[in-house]
Amino acid sequence: MHITLIEPYFTGSHAQWANGLRKNSQHQVELLTLPGRFWKWRMYGGAVELAQQFQNKIQQTDLILATDMLDLSTFLALTRSQTAHTPVAVYFHENQITYPWPPNDPDIQNGRNNQYGFLNYTSALAADQLFFNSKYHQQTFLNALPGFLKQFPDFKGLDLIQSITNKSQVLHLGMELKKMDVHKKVISSKVPLILWNHRWEYDKAPSIFFEALFRLKSENIPFQVVVLGKDYEKAPAIFAQAKQHLANEIVHFGYLKDRADYCKWLWAADILPVSGIQDYFGGSVVEAMHCNTFPLLPNRLAYPEHIPESKKTNYLYPRPEDLYPLLKKAVLNIDRTRELGTDARTFVTHYDWSAQIANYDRLFTTVINH
């Protein structure tokens, strides 16, 4: 069958997922995309441009697969002569109802932030099927809907929440993990290497991460650190402070355009202390775990889903203040830490496309035949 995947924000993990699905699916997957910038404008205006692109298509579509960045209701209204009888699914990488907004965002200050969440809500209503990248994400979104809708003055549509729940299910992120294996490096240094491989944004709580490293340094505990990830214009000030304060410990600091270089650093790293306040799946965490990096993860968000029940005490910490003592222990017992890192790899192998794609194809066929 022919699937049209519509992605208004085609960059980073969104683009990797879309390209991976197109490459691995037994179905023919066509991508309709817009560049991954101006995310707020993409949620508002992307549907208009992508509707025009869709109307200019020649090949008929059996299934429309949109992501959460599309205003699906507007898209379907503008293409109704072509899409009235076409099954539609939405894949939620994230959502704007439960995403923690930065307090200095002008949309919060001006009371406009609810509009983006409302687009996610109406898209969920308009779709035939909803897929969430983790159980945590699914539950968080569904649990937040009543409170979100109750803030409005009347005709709140609370009775519609059950219909959204009924057509929702978990479909974990498919990833190109096995391709990272060719970049494996043999550990040659006895000094523990600590890794940051996330976006440089507030929701990853970088201050907690770097303050733990500052404490290690103050106690004269040897370590090195590699800081990867995209540097946004408004990156938290802690990154500049860390670059100066940890100058002797830093072995690399900044974004890597070459995927091979990124993978090599993940294979070289020993410990991934995670401090984020938001992660609906945690692709960067999964990539590091696949490369034998030992993860220290908060016991919340989507992270516990990556760890077997019997192993959770080795990898999860309950409170932010528990991160440092566990990180210190991991650094001082690096041989044991590296063993735990090797074990962690086995926890995430099922996210590789080779294991995920059969489930994707089966579920897409189910949507069409429903």
Question: Could you give the topology of this structure?
Answer:
Elements: E1 2-10, H1 12-24, E2 28-35, H2 39-55, E3 63-67, H3 72-78, H4 80-83, E4 88-92, H5 106-109, H6 114-126, E5 129-132, H7 135-150, H8 161-166, E6 168-170, E7 193-196, H9 206-218, E8 224-227, H10 238-245, E9 250-253, H11 259-268, E10 271-273, H12 283-290, E11 294-298, H13 312-315, E12 316-317, H14 323-332, H15 334-345, H16 353-369
Parallel strand pairs: 1-2, 1-3, 3-4, 4-5, 5-6, 7-8, 8-9, 10-11, 11-12
Helix pairs in contact: 2-3, 9-10, 9-14, 12-15
Architecture overview:
- It is a single chain.
- The protein contains 16 helices and twelve strands.
- By secondary structure, the chain is of the alpha/beta class.
- Strands 2-1-3-4-5-6 form a six-stranded parallel beta sheet, sandwiched between helices. Strands 7-8-9 form a three-stranded parallel beta sheet, with helices on one face.
- The longest helix is centred in the N-terminal third of the chain and has 17 residues, at 39-55.
